[in-house]
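Title: Prediction job returns without error message
Component: structure pipeline
Severity: low
Priority: P3
Assignee: unassigned

Description:
Job completed but the reporter wants confirmation the result is attached to the right record. Sequence as submitted:
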Amino acid sequence: MEYLILEDKERKKQLKKELKEINKRLHKPKRKNAKPQVKKERKKRFIVSEEVGRECNRCGMVMERREHITKPNKTWYYTKWDYCSNGSCEKTVQHYDEFKSEDWKEGERQEEFLANIK
């Protein structure tokens, strides 16, 4: 009986060592002179417009209308879009053709013109 108890104690010690090794591999030791990480604030690239958006197709809540603060460096973008602020809603962003950028509309017009020539 004593022999079994000794085996159990040795087994527990062995398991503790194995757990320590696993923890060392998973959690790397922190550097001594490590600086605390501070999250940087992201610049907002949009503002919430005073206009009221349409109702969400999924949850039925009225969405907020957002628009860019500055013009993006892209040719193809939406000037405004609706954002559903309901956290449980799967569809959070809704874009509409009426809010396509002027460059986008011009590009589509030119593509259509060239397609009709051929």
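Comment from assignee: result matches the submitted record. The two ends are 95 Å apart (CA to CA).
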